[in-house]
Amino acid sequence: MPTPDVVLLTKADCHLCTAARAAVERVTADLGLGWSEQSIDADPQLRERYAEEIPVVLVNGIQRDFWKIDEDRLTRTLKKALEG
Question: Which of 44, 46, 52, 72 could form an SS bridge with 40, CB 3.0 to 4.6 Å?
């Protein structure tokens, strides 16, 4: 069974990032998955690409959500990735 790679992109002083962390943690914990967080602050390419959309959730390198993380949608996406 493939394990989805879940990455939360964040930046400093981001009030939406706090809620996003909690959402990603809840969803991944319910599914028994890990996740990682990456700041765009030190990466010029990520900062240029995602500056206006932070926080962003990537699943297997594909952007799946941004700003306010929809836990139901993320759950469906991860379940589909686990099947796949």
Answer: 46
| DSSP class per residue in the chain | -PPP-EEEEE-TT-HHHHHHHHHHHHHHHHHT---EEEESTT-HHHHHHHTTT-SEEEETTEEEEESS--HHHHHHHHHHHHH-
Type of residue numbered 3? T
Check: CB of residue 78 under 8 Å from CB of residue 4.
Answer: yes
pTM of the model: 0.94
Tens-digit pLDDT string for the chain (84 aa):
689 999 999 999 999 999 999 999 999 999 999 999 999 999 999 999 998 999 999 999 999 999 999 999 999 999 999 997
